[in-house]
Amino acid sequence: MALLAHRATHRPSPRIAVLALILTLGSMGWIGLGQAQPQLYRWVDEKGEVHYTDQVPPSQADKARTRLSEDGVTVESVPRAPTEEEIEQAREEERRRVEEAKQRADQLAADEKLLKTYRTIEDLELSRNGKIAAIESLIQVKRDGVRAETQNLLKINAELKALEGAGKPIPTDLMDKIDLSVVRIREGYAEVVDNEYRKQDIRNEFERIVTHYRKLKRLPPAEEPKDDAEAVLKLSILVSCKGEEQCLRYWERAVGYVRKHSDKKKEVAGTGLLIAFQQDDREDRSLTLSWTQKGPDRPVHLYLDVQCKNKLTASLYCVNPTIPQIRDGFQESVVLEGEEGG
User: Fold this and answer.
1) What DSSP state is assigned to residue 59?
2) Element (H, E) at 185
3) Buried/exposed code over 32-70 (b: 16+ C-beta within 10 A; e: otherwise)
4) Domain shared by 167 and 256, yes or no
5) Do 277 and 306 contact (CB within 8 A), yes or no?
6) Which of 98, 138, 236, 283 has its CA 20 to 30 A from that of 165?
């Protein structure tokens, strides 16, 4: 007991205590006390091989990697750096998301404005009819301008005939005036045709608006639903053509049709223009065929304009019963069955 008591009361020297502490810590893996713990990384190279290293090579810094604990547990994951293509895709996706959000906001604002502006379907129809009427007024102004230019051309052409009949030389400026007048008439009719297409665009636009309006108002669909395709402009006095061969073929047929219904002795012809005449005891009538094109990249149209003037009242309304038949029969006489056109 005395020996045990002596051992219990004996204190080891400080040096021995420090050595014991170092040995103890060393056995627990803490020999590096005061230094950073070693790192262990797991990463995969370009060939798909897995590596475990205490450092990630600089050449692999942009690859995905994980840091492991001493027990092999993942304590940190670093994804790989995105490629330039992926960065651009992300930017594009963000731009698309922002644009879609803007479009949704714009559509909501437009729907709200539509419902506030038009209380009923009838309000929409009145607005549509007003827009079409405005364009019809422009068309009539153009046709009036063409009528005036046609009278000018007839006057110049009479001077030409008089000089030819007298055997006199034809002044160059007179021919220039004729050419300029023909160009003005054709340009006028090109504007008329362009405005006819504008009218059809308005009809198509309002058809879409009415369909959308019914959905917003939760109204039943129209009794006669139309196809998704837009309606195209269809006028019996208008023919479109593609390519020089087809257009020339249509033009020859159109000229023959006009001459069939007019006095060939009094006609006036120019490049892409034919003006023929009809008359009776009540009125004078002109049938003007024009080759119209707004630009080299625009379609070619053959347009037949029939205008009348009452000899007694000067009314411009055509009363002869054959006029509607002439207008209605133009297109089918130019475009034969099975051919493209319209």
Assistant:
1) G
2) helix 172-217
3) eeeeeeeebbbbeeeeeeeeeeeebeeebeebebeeeee
4) no
5) no
6) 283
- Per the domain annotation, does 182 fall within a domain? yes
- CA 35, distance to chain mean position in Å, is 69
Question: pLDDT tens string for the chain (342 positions)?
Answer: 333 333 333 444 433 433 343 344 344 444 444 455 567 767 677 777 777 777 778 776 677 777 766 666 676 777 777 778 888 888 999 999 999 999 999 999 999 999 999 999 999 999 999 999 999 999 999 999 999 999 999 999 999 999 999 999 999 999 999 999 999 999 999 999 999 999 999 999 999 999 999 999 999 987 765 555 578 888 999 999 998 999 999 999 999 999 999 987 889 999 999 999 998 899 999 999 999 988 888 889 999 999 999 999 999 999 999 999 999 999 999 999 877 766
Write out the residue range of the structural domain in which residue 130 sits. Answer: 118-217
Query: Are the CB atoms for 252 and 259 separated by under 8 Å?
Result: no
* Same domain membership, residue 312 and residue 248: yes
Residues 153/268, Cβ–Cβ less than 8 Å = yes
Please name which of 302, 305, 299 lies closest in space to residue 331, comparing C-alpha atoms: 302
Instruction: Considering only CA atoms, give the Rg of the chain.
Output: 45
Alpha-carbon gap, residue 327 to 130, rounded angstroms: 26
The encoded tokens of residue 5 equal: 């008591």
Beta-carbon contacts of residue 222 (< 8 Å; ≥ 6 apart): 210, 211, 214
Residue 92 falls inside a structural domain: no
**In-domain check, residue 192:** yes
Residue 55 CA from chain centroid, whole number: 57
Tokens of 152: 């000018």
* Helix H or strand E encompassing 65: strand 65-68
Domain-located, residue 201:
yes
